[in-house]
Amino acid sequence: MDQLLSGMIAMGFAVAGVFFLRFWRDTRDRLFAMFALSFLVMAGSRIAVALSDQPAAGTVQYWVRFVAFGLILFAVLDKNRPPRAAPPPSPPA
């Protein structure tokens, strides 16, 4: 039963990752690319949990989730960062 639920959760993460990948393809916005990568990493983690004999509460899974959520946090902060000011033009010689 745990493998079935892990597979369903992995499928949900993979579907979300593919949707964000499609949005990235249309807009070329880094936010969508990072979200897609994050959800695909979480899907891979759930597939690994479903295929292994170890419980889902291992330390490796926590670190993978930490990296995935860190990617989401970085993407949101990167998107809300103010734009850089353009350097002033150099004076004519």
Alpha-carbon Rg, integer: 19 Å
What structural class do you assign from the helix and strand content?
mainly alpha
The helix content, as a percent range, equals over 70%
Distance between the termini: 75 Å
- What portion of the residues fall into strands of 2 or more residues? under 5%
Give the SSE string. HHH
Largest sheet, in brief, is:
none
The stretches of 5 or more residues where confidence is low (pLDDT under 50) are none
Helix count from the secondary structure assignment:
3
Q: What is the subunit organization of this protein? A: single chain
Shape: elongated
Mean residue pLDDT: 90
Number of domains: 1
Q: Number of DSSP strands?
A: 0
Question: Layout of helices and strands, plus pairs?
Answer:
Blueprint: H1 2-27, H2 30-51, H3 59-79
Helix pairs in contact: 1-2, 2-3
At a glance:
The chain is mainly alpha-helical.
Question: How would you sum up this structure, described in words?
Answer:
The structure is a single chain. This protein is mainly alpha-helical. It has one domain. Helices cover 74% and strands 0% of the residues. The protein contains three helices and no strands. The protein has helices at 2-27, 30-51, 59-79. It is elongated, with a radius of gyration of 19 Å. The termini are far apart.
Looking at this protein, list some descriptive labels:
74% helix, mainly alpha, 93 residues, 3 helices, elongated, 0% strand
